[in-house]
Amino acid sequence: MHYFVICEQNPLFSLKLHFFFRIPKMVLNIKRASSLDGATVNVQDVLKPFDHQVGGHTPFTSLPNGHLLKPCVERELYFYQKMPKSLKSIAPLCCSTIQGSSVSTFDDSCVNCRQHQLENVVIPESIEGSPILNKRKLSKNFIVLSDLTYRMKSPRILDLKLGTRQHGDQATVAKIACMTAKCQSTTSATLGIRLCGMKRPPSESQNQISINKYEGRQMGKMELFLALQQFFDVSENVLELVQTKLLAIRDVLNETDGVRLFGASLLIVIESEITESTPIENLVRIKVVDFANATFGGFQGDNIYEGKDEGSILGLDTLLGIVKC
Ligand SMILES: [Zn+2]
């Protein structure tokens, strides 16, 4: 049995609390098939705090072999379970979903997850006593996603809120007003992107840069462009890779009817520490993430939308204009 504690604010702090002070908190008990042979898996080797998060408000926890455990609302879990095939290519690989004690591993999960499936997940009722988790309805739902920073030595990470509208169809009137105002007062409405988080690690010739979502909301067009130029201050071949991947995502959205990526982000990860032996697949990774408010035709009784997601495509075009070689 391995007991894991997830804290809304700081997973590392929670782990320490549980193991050293025995304060009951949210407990996620995962027994892996690979441990059925009696081998003991040290919790510290299995679940670790994730160091590279730059955006969003849900804390991720790192699982072995390039996976992340993300607490999510039920809607996002269903989105991953039912998303159209075309969208799978632009989203991170989702290997499993966890609802309470029920784990579903997808047929198209990675080899590791097919061989070592998660099972026997138990989340005790006591976690429902946590007001933060209850408030966000995150207590029992998790998705196991691929970690875009996996095997990168020094990743620079950019989280751009995509599109001109962020609220989903289920949003309350107050939420719609708030989210619409946020789009209108930031670069979202005019450029289809807003900086939600950015980290560029320090190097011999460059200082570290770290920008959070609050600073991102204050940015006008010029400040945003300046920040993005600093982020994409990379070699021409890396920039070409970025461009190719952005164009591939744009192509998918351009050819997909009825999808609306409300509230989603474009997550861009680039390896800063490149050597001759760095595999090309470890240089640039770009995916669309955060589907809690996104929709597609026939999903969860949402409104039916026709045509392509122009707001998201506007954002990709803005970005492509900045990264053009
Ligand atoms: Zn996997």
TrEMBL record:
EC number(s) recorded for this UniProt protein: 2.7.-.-
Domain of life: Eukaryota
Class in the EC hierarchy, top level: transferase
Gene3D superfamilies: Inositol polyphosphate kinase
Biological process, per Gene Ontology: inositol phosphate biosynthetic process; phosphatidylinositol phosphate biosynthetic process
Swiss-Prot/TrEMBL keywords: Kinase, Transferase
GO molecular function: inositol hexakisphosphate kinase activity
Gene Ontology CC entries for this record: cytoplasm; nucleus
Family to which this protein belongs: Belongs to the inositol phosphokinase (IPK) family.
Protein name as annotated: Kinase
Organism: Caenorhabditis nigoni
